């Protein structure tokens, strides 16, 4: 439903993005139908296990496809832009906890915890780069003392300042 809502409003209501939503929803529907059909036809069969292993491998590929552009763009631009460090920190910790649960408590195979491990590593990489580039940006530009604005909220007075000789000065 969210995908449909996204393409109803500008700037995403173009033919290319609407077609991408149709393809995505069609693939999702076919995947769910195939899994339900095979499970109802022959539960716990070799074909069901093969399909579940295929889904596990595909989920790892999807994780890489989902996070790789952000990881690359953050590295390429050497900046964090408007990404939330707090989001990536919480997401990385949550994914790490899921991996520990799957490994230790549930003793699942690599096909279960592998995609989550890849996701955790990529999210942790993005979080690490966010912190590094935000810390480095202050030192490299000669501006701030290199504080990491993980949870810093700027007020309007701070937003109206500029860096001059390594000191914060108000711009009037």
Automatic annotation (TrEMBL):
GO-annotated cellular components: membrane
InterPro entries (UniProt xref): PQ-loop_rpt
Spans through the membrane: 20-40, 52-72, 84-104, 110-133
Membrane topology: Multi-pass membrane protein
Keywords: Membrane, Transmembrane, Transmembrane helix
Keyword Cell wall biogenesis/degradation annotated: no
Record bears the keyword Transmembrane helix: yes
Signal peptide span: none
UniProt xrefs under Pfam families: PQ-loop
Subcellular compartments: Membrane
Protein name (database record): Uncharacterized protein
Organism for this UniProt entry: Chrysochromulina tobinii
